Amino acid sequence: MATITIYVPDHEPVAYDLDGYEQLTVGRSEDADIILDHDSLSGSHAVLQNTDGSLSVSDLGSTNGTYVNGEQITEAVAVGEGSQITFGNVESVISGGEAGVDESAGGSDFAASAGGSGYGAHAAELSDVSNQPDGFSNLSPIEKAEKKDTLATIAVLLGVVAILAAIAVAGIATTMSAG
Known about the structure:
The chain is of the alpha+beta class. About 20% of the residues lie in helices and about 25% in strands. The model is unreliable at about 100-130 (pLDDT under 50).
């Protein structure tokens, strides 16, 4: 059974069973099969395809790209056990070998069978493990945003306002003394 475990930053990892599905779209849009609410993903970011037991991934013209084992892709690339896929800044890993087609699934709607929302979203149980696999590294070309110190920003703005006020007072004093 092939699965993809997705590691959305600041969330618990989620594993999705890929067996029995010919095609699954990944993105932020409610129309995506696997909805990932992260700013680095496009509405329709990428597609996972399961053809004759072989799993592949391709980018759908996303803004921040799709990467397989650190290499940016544009066309379909085969993936299997241990492949690391990065959608924008969201990392994932394939486990369970090549995806096999489950004939007993009969093409049933995953969202309905897993208690999903009914518009194609996939529901999955949270993974038992909350840490990333050994050797998993951030391959995304997007740098992680640093949190800014709000008090320091306010102090700088107050300093700029004070300097501008002092310049204005000096200008007014110069104008009054000249006249």
